[in-house]
Amino acid sequence: MLRIRDGGSVDESNIFVSVDYLEGMDKVAMNLGHQQVSAAVTGKALTQSMDCKTCHKEAEASIGSNYMDVSKKYKERRDALSYLQTRIKTGGSGVWGEVTMPAHPKITSDESRQIGLYILSLAGDQEEERSLPTKGTITAESSAPGNMLVITASYTDEGAEGTIPLTGSKSVAIPSSTIQLTEDLKTNNMQAMAFGGMDLMLLNAESGWLELANTSLKGVNALTLTAAWQSAPNLSFDFQIHENTPDGPVVGEATMPAQTGGQGTRFLSLFTGVAGDGPYYVTYKAEEGKELSAIALTGAMFR
Ligand code: HEC
Fold this sequence. Notes:
- By secondary structure, this protein is an alpha+beta fold.
- The protein is 21% helix and 30% strand.
- It has a 5-stranded antiparallel beta sheet, with no helix packed on it.
- The longest helix has 18 residues, at 32-49.
- The model has no long low-confidence stretch (mean pLDDT 83).
């Protein structure tokens, strides 16, 4: 929901909505592509709040070259951005004609960078930079396990004469239903390893846990775990889901009985009826008084 605090009108073309599949929260935090997109939106607003608009238009002829032509002229140049930043600051003539552009000695490099990104975005790959509609339904594509679906919306205001336009943005991350069992997870007495092209978590002590951070269990019926072993564990394991801390309230549990035979796997469903935002901890506890036999989790998925 977008609110404009000062009651001004919303320019729809300054709203940018996107959906991405990213590899985890750190990637979400440094979602560079979108910073660039919002930089371009800010850059456009900057050109409108500064004197540029008296001489330049986006696509029509004016005293100065239009930004679209500038964009086409330099888009293949690798140093296009720094070149434009310098030209905006120093001004000059001779590239497009005899008319001289005044220098802008006071422009900061951040401002000229945003303007440069805006100009370069004009002839850029429109496919990537077009905003999604502000209302609609997103059907999640299947993507690599562990990826998150991230919806980002940003809005840039027009800025006022002499002030920098402001951009606000907000991202919502929806984790994949498959938990990737890698060392990125915070664990205790569990060891992430790759085995035969598969990521798994070794349960190598009598008890331990793994943390499900940034995970809401809203709408989730169960967490299904796949346990596997090389030689059958001659003891049972209790699995539980705890809310907030590893010994917080139990919100789901299942017991895996002792097994016989050699190599094997087993599915376990830990039902949950909670609707909290976590964090949650999946704990395990080996049956007491029996000789420990290592097993591994090879899958964890919300249903
Ligand atoms: C008084 C008119 C005027 C103003 C104000 C002005 N420009 Fe220009 N601008 C020009 C002219 C004329 C040229 C063409 C210069 C040339 O041929 O080298 C130009 C060229 C440019 C170019 C292309 C440079 C190149 O090497 O191709 C960019 C980018 C640009 N201006 C951006 C801006 C921005 C951003 C602002 C505001 C911060 C601005 N201009 C303000 C007149 C102006």
